[in-house]
Amino acid sequence: MNRNIFKNCKRLAIMGGTFDPIHYGHLVAAEAAFHKFNLDKVVFMPAGNPVFKKGTRVADKESRFIMTYLAVLENEHFDVSRIEIEREGDTYTIDTIEQVKKLCDPDTKLYFITGADAISYIFSWKEPVRLVSMCEFIAVTRPGYKNCKLFDNIEKLSDKYKNRIHYMEIPALSISSTEIRQRVKHDYPIKYLLPDNVISYIEKTGLYKEEALSREEIMMDFETMRQKLQSSLYIKRYIHTLGVVEEAEKLAKIYGNEITVEKAKIAALLHDCAKDYPTELKMRFCKEYHVYLDEIMKENTDLIHSFLGAEVAKREYLVKDDEILDAIRFHTTGRKNMTLLEKIVFIADFTEKGRKPFDGLEEARRLSYIDINMALTYILECVIEHVKSKGRALHPLSCEALEYYKNK
Ligand SMILES: [Fe+2]
Ligand SMILES: [Fe+2]
What's the CA gap between 88 and 383, in Å, rounded? Predict the structure, then answer.
């Protein structure tokens, strides 16, 4: 580890990150940058005590270093540095770059690769102009993710420096370290998300098993889920989903407490998570996840996505809360004696602000803010009428629900 890994390179990139843990998204991003910028080497630089992650739990730096070391072993133009790991105190990118510059040959062209989010932080922290004058930046992000904060910060720089910041979309960056940690914690598979030798290390050391589920993590979970969901829905459905989240949050604030609000947002976010799967995939998952399809569902396949969605939420989004899962499961049919959360998602799905105007929409919205059961009954009537008019099969759960709430 004493050799100077920064020597003898004309074009060198530092890949910054917490790597908690490192995964294929990071490796694919580094490899893509290697080719696009014609680099001689990419040096991974696990952060010591990242300033922007203060207050959140990060695995100890030696473990993160070892995982990064294992992950880059097989790639001859990748290497890993201990510079940040060994530095005492907080980690600032500018200090790292200064140190690396001293170790490089004088004519080495230096790049710094990191996530677009992290770059926005770096530019809002310490001496951005001096930073960009020392090296060029490569902001990597998953497709379709426009980081406004980054663009705002870039806008503040003069034209001379703007073109020293490059932007690369990397599809594999949909994988997230947060999700991997959650998967380990809940015993879900992580194979194919990160190298096998890193997985063995995590298993051997028991890393990520013991993390307590703090409030921040629940919030972070929502964000992770949102990112994951975005890549599995058509844009129209994704926009509809965000509308349902907003409306569900509003209703939860009226009729529930703080916990209802948190749960309603997650249930609303995931209510259509399986809706855009191609039919064959829906059927395959129904089999795999033991989703029972009755005759009506086989006939009216539009109903499948809610029952399957609950299983997808459980297995793919790691939702364990039965109340949330039921709100997803019954959001299309309804049922008698629904929980508050089920009612909220059922109603919000119908009344969200993105819905094109149709008969009954305004009335349903108006009722939803005054009497949740009246709104529910009204919407059940509308839905049943609509299904009948289309000549589609009506699910008995919906009929039971209407009967139940009409007589309440
Ligand atoms: Fe739906
Ligand atoms: Fe929906």
Answer: 63
